[in-house]
């Protein structure tokens, strides 16, 4: 067993990246994500990896995509304004099927907003920020140790599905310090870079999907002469102006993720066995919700909570089951109302869904959530 | 009957040809100069060389070249190429870009690539116009010339991309034209030999989106214009100022210096950190 160490969420993210095999990081400083870049600058050369500070977030994103194609596992980290700048190349990574992890340590927006203050206002941008139809995987940790674990998971999903994966952190968890014991290398499962199973002579086509709908694109420098483009392309990798190929490739991009929903979508439930009411939350806010729900239980309210670990793809089934079980749901999130729309959609009108939001640059206090719980329970679920 | 190939043709994906460029376009000349420079270099081959391009007519060249090729986003070829090179320094990385791609939307990446002296060879196909989008002005459209977005003639001042590269820290800077094709090949070959950021501006004619609107005549006339106005560096240096008219420009190796490249510099970071 490794030592117990006091560390910050952002540091745990960097440790997780190294443990998952990330050997290339390109970044640009921005609060509250900067410690991730600083940690990577220190750690990567120790492992023979490369850290480069680029001229902006677009360049950082381009550099990690180039490095990924050259065979490295890659990550970069940013916050609101930087995440906005990356959007075009996030779409590039999706359509060109380039494994990469992007960390977004959310802060208050829009624009420069409140640079050091916590928020969960990028939930929808993570899903829909880049233009066009594309799937997205996003994971959101609520503790320092889970930040480590979800970073490893994010790197593994990026490699497994050859897609951008977003680690959706928030300032609360990014700057949280906790005593943690990190797993040893033997305790961590690593998904290796996918490799071609055919030679060129055998008719290898870099973007031909395997049974899991994910292609085994050869890394550069292995003699495969792969062509990578952001244009819609067929299985050879070359652009085609065909309606059929366009439709099929956009569909496959979605299906490779959607079909693996059971593997990707994680939720956690607390106090749910006999609960009549539930609070849905995620990330740093879920910590406050846990406190409030524990207090509510002591006061005799039959309330539980569901925490979204995977934000995207959305946990439709878990929410539908929840809606069928409880009399009402409250969604607590640190924004003006984003994930609540997904919860309402997935609940399908089976039970009322109420909103507990906050966007004043402060985190929730347990009494605020407790009040919302009392209101929900005393309302009895009647709208 | 077996087809007789010219020696450089093996560097092309012949099943992707013919290319999409207009008749009379100079991009094919510059693309051929690149592969001929590769052919001359004993250390460059199709398996250890990566071609990275941005977006534009010129950037479509990557799709025709039989290497690992990366057609990126508008302006972003140099950051992608930086990642390729740093992740696998054994690869030779060549960037193909357009004047808009490199000096407008990609301008910041261009100067920082130069500053880092990252070991890339960047070939700018300068057609003085946004070709792919149909003839809008670029930062390298000469002042006074017409473009769809400068219907009365451009009032913008023009970038000299070679001076820019030199000022920003590139360690090899050269210019040539589609008319001087053997010279262009030599300039690109020289860039491959420099371990650091090498920049070659290749002037190419765009009869469709630039020449026609500016009454520059047929493609052959545009090539003759290059012949008549390009001055070899040595002669340029001796040319009296009054003869350096706005049309005239120097070609050749314009600047060369020695400086440690980024990969090599980073090796010392790995050493200091105690890495392998
Ligand atoms: C972000 C973005 N902005 C604009 C465009 C549209 N666009 C495509 S090519 C191009 C200009 C290309 O001009 P240049 O770089 O000079 O290359 P050329 O086509 O002349 O070879 C533009 C503006 C784009 N693809 N992406």
Characterization of the model:
Helices cover 38% and strands 22% of the residues of chain A. Chain A has 14 helices and 16 strands. Chain A has helices at 9-20, 34-43, 57-69, 80-85, 87-96, 123-128, 144-161, 171-174, 243-258, 261-264, 285-298, 316-325, 339-347, 366-379; strands at 4-8, 22-27, 50-53, 73-78, 100-108, 114-118, 137-139, 164-170, 177-181, 227-229, 267-270, 277-282, 303-308, 310-312, 328-333, 353-357. In chain A, the strands form three sheets. In chain A, strands 2, 3, 4, 5, 6, 7, 8 and 14 form an eight-stranded mixed sheet that branches. A five-stranded mixed sheet of chain A has the order 11-13-12-15-16, sandwiched between helices. In chain A, helix 1 crosses helix 2, helix 3 (57-69) packs parallel to helix 5 and helix 11 crosses helix 14. The termini of chain A are far apart. By secondary structure, chain B is an alpha/beta fold. Chain B contains ten helices and eight strands. Chain B has an eight-stranded mixed sheet with strand order 2-1-3-4-6-5-8-7, sandwiched between helices. Chain B is globular. Chain A binds chain B through residues 23-24, 26, 42, 45-50, 52, 54-56, 58-72, 74, 88-89, 92, 220-231, 238-239, and chain B through 13, 16, 46-48, 50, 52, 62-63, 66-73, 76, 78-88, 90-91, 108-109, 112, 262, 266, 269-270, 272-276.
In short:
The complex is a heterodimer of chains A (383) and B (276). Chain A has 383 residues and is of the alpha/beta class.
Salient structural properties:
heterodimer; A: 383 residues; Rossmann fold; 2 domains; eight-stranded mixed beta sheet; five-stranded mixed beta sheet; 38% helix; B: 276 residues; alpha/beta; 10 helices; 35% helix; globular
CATH superfamily of chain B: Thiamin diphosphate (ThDP)-binding fold, Pyr/PP domains
CATH homolog superfamily of the largest domain in chain A: Thiamin diphosphate (ThDP)-binding fold, Pyr/PP domains
Low-pLDDT segments of chain B: none
Count up the domains of chain A: 2
CATH topology of the largest domain in chain A: Rossmann fold
The run of helices and strands of chain B is HEEHEHHEHEHEHHEHEH
Tally of individual domains of chain B: 1
Largest sheet of chain A: 8 strands, mixed
Q: If helices are DSSP runs of H or I spanning 4 or more residues, what is the number of helices of chain B?
A: 10
Number of DSSP-assigned strands of chain A: 16
Mean pLDDT rating of chain A: 97
Across the major sheet of chain B, the strand order is 2-1-3-4-6-5-8-7
- Taking the alpha carbons of the first and last residues of chain B, their distance comes to 55 Å
**Average of per-residue pLDDT values of chain B:** 97
C-alpha termini separation of chain A:
52 Å
Q: Kindly state the percentage of residues in helix of chain A.
A: 25-40%
């Amino acid at each position: 067993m490794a030592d117990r160490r006091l560390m910050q969420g952002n540091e745990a993210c960097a440790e997780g990246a190294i443990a998952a095999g990330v050997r290339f990081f390109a970044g640009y400083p921005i609060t509250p994500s900067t410690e991730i870049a600083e940690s990577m600058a220190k750690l990567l050369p120790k492992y023979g990896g490369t850290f480069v500070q680029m001229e902006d977030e677009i360049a950082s994103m381009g550099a990690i995509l180039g490095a990924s194609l050259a065979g490295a596992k890659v990550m970069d980290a940013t916050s609101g304004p930087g995440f906005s700048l990356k959007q075009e190349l996030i779409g590039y990574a999706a359509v060109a099927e380039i494994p990469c992890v992007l960390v977004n340590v959310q802060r208050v927006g829009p624009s420069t907003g409140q640079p050091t203050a916590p928020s969960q206002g990028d939930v929808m941008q993570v899903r829909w920020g880049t233009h066009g139809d594309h799937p997205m995987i996003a994971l959101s940790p609520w503790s320092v140790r889970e930040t480590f674990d979800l970073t490893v998971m994010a790197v593994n999903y990026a490699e497994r599905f050859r897609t951008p994966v977003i680690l959706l952190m928030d300032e609360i968890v990014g700057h949280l310090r906790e005593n943690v014991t990190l797993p040893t290398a033997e305790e961590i499962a690593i998904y290796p870079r996918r490799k071609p199973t055919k030679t060129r002579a055998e008719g290898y086509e870099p973007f031909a999907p395997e049974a899991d709908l994910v292609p085994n694109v050869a890394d550069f420098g292995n003699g495969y002469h792969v062509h990578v483009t952001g244009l819609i392309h067929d299985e050879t990798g070359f652009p085609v102006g065909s309606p059929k190929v366009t439709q099929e490739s956009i569909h496959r991009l979605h299906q490779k993720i959607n079909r693996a929903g059971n593997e990707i979508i994680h939720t956690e439930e607390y106090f749910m066995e006999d609960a009549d009411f539930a609070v849905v939350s995620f990330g740093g806010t879920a910590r406050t919700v846990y406190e409030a729900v524990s207090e509510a239980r002591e006061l005799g309210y039959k309330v539980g909570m569901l925490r979204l670990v995977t934000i995207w793809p959305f946990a439709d089934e878990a929410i539908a089951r929840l809606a069928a079980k409880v009399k009402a749901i409250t969604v607590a999130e640190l924004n003006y109302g984003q994930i609540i729309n997904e919860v309402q959609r997935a609940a399908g009108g089976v039970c009322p869904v109420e909103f507990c939001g906050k966007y004043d640059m402060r985190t929730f206090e347990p009494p605020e959530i407790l009040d919302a719980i009392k209101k929900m329970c005393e309302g009895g679920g009647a709208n | 009957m077996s087809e007789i190939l010219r020696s450089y043709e093996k560097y092309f994906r012949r099943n992707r040809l013919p290319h999409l460029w207009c008749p009379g376009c100079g991009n094919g000349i510059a693309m051929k100069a690149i592969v001929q420079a590769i052919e001359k270099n004993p250390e460059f081959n199709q398996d250890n060389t990566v071609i990275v391009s941005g977006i534009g007519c010129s950037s479509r060249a990557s799709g025709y070249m039989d290497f690992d090729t990366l057609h990126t986003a508008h302006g972003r070829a140099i950051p992608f190429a930086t990642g390729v090179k740093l992740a696998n320094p054994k690869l030779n990385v060549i960037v193909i870009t357009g004047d808009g791609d490199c000096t407008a939307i990609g301008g910041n990446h261009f100067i920082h690539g130069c500053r880092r002296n990252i070991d890339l060879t960047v070939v700018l196909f300068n057609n003085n116009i946004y070709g792919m989008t149909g003839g809008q002005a670029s930062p390298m459209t000469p002042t006074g010339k017409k473009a769809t977005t400068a219907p009365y003639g451009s009032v913008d001042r023009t970038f000299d991309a070679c001076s820019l590269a030199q000022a920003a820290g590139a360690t090899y800077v050269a210019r040539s034209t589609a008319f001087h094709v053997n010279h262009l090949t030599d300039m690109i070959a020289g860039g491959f030999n420099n371990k650091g950021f090498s920049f070659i501006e290749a002037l190419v004619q765009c009869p469709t989106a630039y020449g026609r609107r500016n009454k520059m005549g047929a493609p052959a006339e545009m090539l003759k214009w290059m012949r008549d106005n390009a001055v070899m560096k040595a002669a340029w240096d001796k040319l009296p100022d009054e003869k350096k008219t706005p049309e005239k420009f120097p070609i050749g190796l314009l600047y060369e210096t020695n400086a440690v490249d980024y990969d090599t510099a980073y090796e010392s970071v790995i050493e200091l950190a105690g890495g392998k």
